[in-house]
Amino acid sequence: MNIESIKDCYGCGVCATVCPRDIIGISLNVLGFYEPVILDSSQCIDCGLCCEVCSYLHDELSLQKVEIQSCAAWSKEKAVRQKCSSGGVSFEVGRILINKGYKVCGVRYNTEINRAEHYIASTVEELIPSIGSKYIQSYTVDGFKAIDRKQKYLVTGTPCQIDSFRRYIRKFKKEENFILMDFFCHGVPSMLMWKKYIKEVKKTIGKITYLSWRNKVINCHDMKTMIIDNEKIDWHDSYNLLVKGEKGYYNSRLSQGDVFYRLFLSDTCLGKACYEKCKFKYDRSSADIRIGDLWGRMYKHNEDGVSAAVAFTQRGWELLHECNLEIVEHSFDVVAEGQMKEMPICDELYKRMKILLQRDDLDINQIYRQLLIALKYRKVMNRLKHPVRTMKNILKKIGK
After folding, report:
1. Which phi and psi angles does 28 have, rounded to 5°?
2. Which of 59, 80, 257, 263 has its CA 20 to 30 A from that of 234?
């Protein structure tokens, strides 16, 4: 028994990590999402470990007994807060654990092959590349395989990656050596879309040497350290991409029409499992700590960035209070305001996008224009289906 028949799964890579014969690989499928591949089925010993640790094959969460405690949090260090996507909780958790002798398995962006990937950080300096959100699916295998279960680690990742990873360390009775952290996840977009986007960016700035999502400053003097400049932008408008290339910089924002964010947030190019098998929305997690942006009404006027921090274990809650963080306890509904409660809806636009992304003759801008046409058509059809409601809305606008 193995995962040979599994397709369109979470792509977490834990099956490849646990395989004692090292015959499972993780590669991109035709739709641009990671999934497992049996490299040599004749070498399989039918141990079943790959299926046992696979979150996709289980309906229940790996963490059953949870103690939800929640708060708003942000780093007490100004440079950390300004460098990080929201309040800097992930960095502060990583920093204190490294100082306690842990290592961190986090995610960085590899500009040589243009992918997000898990890696091991043993020092605070090595942790810095993991700062900030990564809005694409990460390749986990090299990072996960580098973990020595006898040592102590903080492991971060998407909720599905973390759920499988907890099954993995529980199987070997090593949960006490690990702190697990995930985040409020919207879903992962197709790497076909990301590659088309990067191809367009390269036309302007050449080979990419640095890339960062969700920046609070327009430029960084030294992108590999915590040194920042004072050219600050509104945190609530920080859905942006800062890319450094050999020929210059590229800085694009959602509010200015950035195509990557528009496609990602349209929910038309996410993984099939994000639509059909995600069991991790809102208050469902197998991590010790879940983080995210706290963009609800409570902090809508905050301009510096506030993290939502939710502990699902007492161990996670105690760790948050040990960090260099300002913590304000709130009920979960305050902390999670605005976060997705259910899976996104898979409709005809997804099916259309799936076809368009596989076409080599279309660039990212052409695909986005096709999406806009489809969205306008849908809007018109909805108005025609509901003429009374449409007329009421028109009269309201006239009345104003």
Report:
1. -75, 135
2. 263
Q: How far is CA 378 from each of CA 364, 382, 384, 386, rounded to the nearest angstrom?
A: 21, 6, 10, 12
DSSP-based three-state secondary structure for 71: strand
- Provide the Cα torsion 75, 78, 84, 87; round to 10°: 40
Instruction: Report the candidate in 229, 144, 137 with the shortest Cα–Cα distance to residue 180.
Output: 144
Helices and strands, number each (H, E), in the chain: 15, 14
pLDDT band at 226 (very low <50, low <70, confident <90, very high): very low
In order of 44, 56, 273, the CA distances from 162 in angstroms are 25, 12, 15
Average confidence (pLDDT) over 50-56: 98
Return the structure tokens found at 356. Answer: 């368009």
Paired tokens of 92: 């502060």
For residue 264, give every residue at least 6 positions away whose Cβ sits within 8 Å of its Cβ, in sequence order, or none. 135, 186, 189, 193
**Phi then psi dihedrals of residue 329, to 5 deg:** -75, 135
Nearest CA-CA partner of 33 in 14, 7, 72, 70: 7
The Cα–Cα gap between 81 and 74 comes to 7
Measure the CA angle with vertex 171, ends 124 and 10; round to 5°: 70
What backbone torsions phi and psi does residue 263 show, to the nearest 5 degrees?
A: -70, -45
355-364: pLDDT as tens digits: 999 999 999 9
The residue type of 100 is K
Tokens of 34: 């990671």
Going by C-alpha positions, the residue among 82, 20, 342, 105 that lies closest to residue 215 is: 82
Parse the chain into domains and list their residue ranges: 14-57, 61-345, 348-399
